[in-house]
Each structure stands twice: as C-alpha cells, then as structure tokens.
Amino acid sequence: MLYQTIDILGTVAFAISGVLVAMEKRLDLFGVLIIAFVTAIGGGTLRDLLIGNTPVVWMRDLTYVTTIFIAVVFAIIFASQLKYLRKSLFLFDTIGIGLYTMVGIEKGLQANLSPIMCVALGTMTACFGGVTRDILCNEIPVIFRKEIYATACILGGASYFLLLLLPIPASYAYLTAIFVVIVLRLLAVKFGISLPNIYKKTS
Amino acid sequence: MLYQTIDILGTVAFAISGVLVAMEKRLDLFGVLIIAFVTAIGGGTLRDLLIGNTPVVWMRDLTYVTTIFIAVVFAIIFASQLKYLRKSLFLFDTIGIGLYTMVGIEKGLQANLSPIMCVALGTMTACFGGVTRDILCNEIPVIFRKEIYATACILGGASYFLLLLLPIPASYAYLTAIFVVIVLRLLAVKFGISLPNIYKKTS
Amino acid sequence: MLYQTIDILGTVAFAISGVLVAMEKRLDLFGVLIIAFVTAIGGGTLRDLLIGNTPVVWMRDLTYVTTIFIAVVFAIIFASQLKYLRKSLFLFDTIGIGLYTMVGIEKGLQANLSPIMCVALGTMTACFGGVTRDILCNEIPVIFRKEIYATACILGGASYFLLLLLPIPASYAYLTAIFVVIVLRLLAVKFGISLPNIYKKTS
C-alpha cells in the first residue's frame, strides 16, 4: 500500500515536471502529453527492461496512464499559476527523484539484486525519465549540470540500507531515505555544492 | 498469413523511407544500410522489448533482415527515379505507420493487453523507427512537427476496436484501420490540420 | 574461463576509452564515471535486452561494476600519461570492439541464433557502447565517420564462423577472430580505407 502510493506520487510529480518543461518549449498538445508520459514512465521502463519485468508495469496496470493523464490536464489548466512559482519545476523534479529512487530499490530487492545494484537501479529509475525529457526538449540533461543530482539518489539509497540495520520498521527507513534524497538535492542547490574537481588547475 | 504480409510490407515501406533520408544526407553505404535497418526494425524492437517478447522478432526470423536488405538494394538502384517523385519519402513513411500500427496492436492483443495499451503499443511500433531515423540523421523528428502523426495512429487504432464491435470479419476491421491511419495522415498534411493550440495568444 | 577473461578485458578497454573521451570534454567526476560505465556496459546491455537475457549480466554479477570502477580510478590517476599517448583512445576503443564482437557472438550462439544474427549481435555489442559514449559527449559517433568500424566487426565475426569449419580448436578460431577485427580496424585507419561511394559524382 505504502509502496504503491509512493509510486503514484512519483508519477504525478514527474508528469507535472514534464508538462512544465514542454510548455516552456511551447510544444503542441500532443508534444506536451508525450513529454509528460516519457518523463513519468521513462525511469520505470528502463528499470523493468533491465530486470526483465515485462510487459513493463505501466502496460499491465492502467493506473499509471490514468494518473499521468489527469496530472497533465491539471497541470495545463493551472500552468499559469505554476509558472509564477518559479521554482515549481525544480521542486516537482526533486520530489520525483526522491520517490522513484526508493521505488527502484524496492523492485531491485524483489528481483534479488545485491544492495549496490539496488541503489544503481533506484538511481536509474529516478534519473532516466528526466534525462529523456531534457534530451527530447533539447536541454542539457540536469544530471550533467554542475550540481549534485544522481549523487543525491545514490546517497539516499545507501542510507536506506544503513537504516535497515537499525531496529526500526522498514517503512520508516523507506520514508526517511526518500527524505534524504530530497533534502540533499535541495541543500546542494541552495548552497551550490558540487562534486570535487578532478582536473589540475590550468592558469 | 494476412498479418505476416502486412508486417513485411511495413518493413519494406520503412526500409525505403530510411534509405531516402540517409541518401539525402549523403551517408556512406554502411550508414544507409544502418538507417534503413533502424527505421524498419526500431518500432518492432521497442514493442518486443516492452512486452518481453524476446529474442526480438527480427533476430529469430531471417525474413525481416533479408527483406530489408533486398529493399535497400532496390531503393539505392532506383534512388534517382524515387528522387523525382518528390513525395515518395512522405508516402512510404505514411504507409509504414499505417501498417505497423496494426502489427503492434495485434502483438498487444496476443500479450493480453487492454485495448488502450494495444493502441499505445501500436502507435509506438509505428512511430519509433521513424523517430530514431530522424534523430540519427539529425532531423527534427516528424512526430514533433506541427502535423497530425501519432494522432493518426491513435485514431486508426481506436477505429479498429470500434469496428470489431460491428458484425464484420476481423480481417476487414484490420485492413480498414490501416486505411484510416494512412488517409488521416494524408488529409492532415494536404489540408494542414494540426492539434489545437493550448497556449494563450500573446500579441 | 577464456570467454570471461575476454569479457573483462573488453570491459576494461571500453571503460578507459570512456574516461579518455569524458576527460577531454572536462566532465566532472560523476560525469566521467557515468560515461565510463555507459561505454563499458552499453553494448552488453543492448545485447542482453534483445535476446531477453535479464536481469542484464552486469546487474547479476558485481565483477563488471568493480572492474569498471578500478579501471576508472586507474585511468584518472594516469590520465596525464595516457594523454601523451595520443593514439591511446583509438587503441583502447579498437581493442574493445574486437573483444566485444566475440563476446556478443558467443551469447548469440548460447541463445540459438543463426550465424548471421550472431554476427549482427556481436557487432551491436561492440559498437553500441561507443556510439552512446559519443552521443552523450556530443561527438559524431565513430561508427558514422568515414572509416571502417562496424564493418571490421562484421568481417571479423564472419571469419569466426569460417574458421570453425577448419579442423582447429574453437578457442583458436575465437582468438583469431578478435585479432581480425582489431587488425582490420588498424589497417583501415592507417591506410585510409573506407566504403565505396554509392553516389554519382556531381561535378
């Protein structure tokens, strides 16, 4: 129950982030729909393909497509309001990666993957939809910008496996890890934290 | 028998459309072959991966590769004639999406997907090869241009399920739906029909 | 044993080639890691997905990820030395396609594919990682440059099936075919051999 709710919330967050990018590029109605779908299902599709969980989940369960459709209609209608919230795209994208990281890790555990591979799967689930959204909209993918992005997913995912070692319910560890991903990303952007430079300085 | 024939005809149409785009970009022989293959098998590959129908169909059945090879040789030899038919690329691409839409829907039904997912699968089968062709050739994908493209596949696919409700043989419904996709796309381009504008006019 | 060794050596070669391209583009640490991973596992992932060998091999066996990680650390530390070897990228890429061509063919045989499909699978295994590396780094993919690249994989792969007809051990044929791919690519670049022109000369 908790896991399905998180999955649907992530779908909503990514669908809205897709609509916001697509409308900024002034795509037509179909283009907006496509970008919203790709953003919301891209990560889960890659995840399901890699672990051989086919037909991929959104083809078997209409909940996803219905949710995306409703989110798109809602986002288009309220687009002008969302536009005034200048950070809304960043926020929805950040919530999306937090939720999807844990959805991917959960699926990895179900497929008996090792913790390291679960974290990798969670990170790909979280990041791939946004990367595809940005490539299709001709933007530099967020993941390659000088910010902590996938790193937040990796650290959040790792925190889940560490938290599981404590005597707390698994659902607490699950929700805390989502929180860790979101907070890390927010703090990284707020304080301009990025990865260390591996190049020698050239003056 | 009918379904295989339609599948092979779609393969020929898309292979030729791939050759035409690749030659316009003056790629070398290998590049032309690759683009023709990717255009012809891209949609079916995505379809087979999504529903878990692996090894993907063209790896199990040499008919596809042989067909594409013959179509490419034919298209290169007669390229100068095809060039004079200025609309030949558009025509082969349109025939291709009509045929592949129904091939995809048929595979979706075999995988017990719901009608909505079958139409989505048919549309992806039809559109993905052409999108990949255009990305590799550095063209704006046809699907994102201001024309009805995927919409024709969706409406044609939906018409199939409506026609199945009538007391006619399934093969009639199948062929009529292909016809619907092709005619919708031809009419949309001829009369410049596109999707409604979702943006408020800015003067 | 031989096959695993070849697979790991190919992984090392491609991971290093990924690091070299990514550092030339001055990506940050995470970007370098991602490009190295994608280059090293891209071909094998496509191969496993196409034949339905899921979860894909690098998710089930930590050897790959560990190997790539060590190769990346090594390559970053010694990057300044590798930089002076101006042809090092070309060399690692060429060794990589030689090794991966045969890894792919072996997996195709295990999946009972016909020889032609095995060669196609080997060529895709060899080429896809490099193509993805170049697209992500915004370079024209090597495969589309005016050189023999995939053709070397195809000819080397075909030579394997011809060599199997001779009364020699399969492992000899296997190693010779790798050698054929590498030598063909080296000779093609050294002597500027490319595919025949299919366009009529325009003066």
From TrEMBL, chains A, B, C:
<keyword id="KW-1003">Cell membrane</keyword>
<dbReference type="Pfam" id="PF03458">
    <property type="entry name" value="Gly_transporter"/>
</dbReference>
<feature type="transmembrane region" description="Helical">
    <location>
        <begin position="89"/>
        <end position="105"/>
    </location>
</feature>
<comment type="similarity">
    <text>Belongs to the UPF0126 family.</text>
</comment>
<feature type="transmembrane region" description="Helical">
    <location>
        <begin position="172"/>
        <end position="193"/>
    </location>
</feature>
<protein>
    <submittedName>
        <fullName>Trimeric intracellular cation channel family protein</fullName>
    </submittedName>
</protein>
<feature type="transmembrane region" description="Helical">
    <location>
        <begin position="111"/>
        <end position="136"/>
    </location>
</feature>
<feature type="transmembrane region" description="Helical">
    <location>
        <begin position="62"/>
        <end position="82"/>
    </location>
</feature>
<keyword id="KW-0472">Membrane</keyword>
<feature type="transmembrane region" description="Helical">
    <location>
        <begin position="30"/>
        <end position="50"/>
    </location>
</feature>
<keyword id="KW-1133">Transmembrane helix</keyword>
<feature type="transmembrane region" description="Helical">
    <location>
        <begin position="6"/>
        <end position="23"/>
    </location>
</feature>
<feature type="transmembrane region" description="Helical">
    <location>
        <begin position="148"/>
        <end position="166"/>
    </location>
</feature>
<feature type="domain" description="Glycine transporter">
    <location>
        <begin position="91"/>
        <end position="163"/>
    </location>
</feature>
<feature type="domain" description="Glycine transporter">
    <location>
        <begin position="5"/>
        <end position="79"/>
    </location>
</feature>
<dbReference type="InterPro" id="IPR005115">
    <property type="entry name" value="Gly_transporter"/>
</dbReference>
<dbReference type="GO" id="GO:0005886">
    <property type="term" value="C:plasma membrane"/>
</dbReference>
<keyword id="KW-0812">Transmembrane</keyword>
